[in-house]
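In this supplementary section we document a worked example of the pipeline. Step one takes a protein sequence of length 135 as its only input; no multiple sequence alignment statistics are reported here. Step two produces a three-dimensional model, which step three serialises into structure tokens for compact storage. The input and output of this example are shown verbatim.
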Amino acid sequence: MRRIISIALMLVSASVYADETATNRGLVSSANIVSWITSTFVILFIILILAYLLKKTRFGRINTGDLRIENQLFLGPKQKIMVVNAYGRKVLLGVTVNQINYLTDLDTNKSDFESLLKGSAQINDKPQESSDDTE
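The serialised model returned by step three reads:
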């Protein structure tokens, strides 16, 4: 990316220098200054848009290892929850600017949660014994 920017700047500066020597009047007129400032802002705007698009699309990042981010949920400006697959094990992590917290293991909690639901369903299915204290 730096190479592309430096090449573009060299080409722009070479064309400005060539224009100055060909007409032999320099960058004195206000039309030339306005044109130069406008083209500079257009180039900066294009660079910022390309940088934003590269950041959002993760172009060039190939994740072939055993550690992958499978999903993430943004909770705030710099806070998120991530599901990370580490060597076939899914882990839920809380990520902030200052720290990363281990929240839970997703593979084992599913079976724990299902057994907890079955246990609560069995408790609800039992007939409740009436306790009459008004004798």
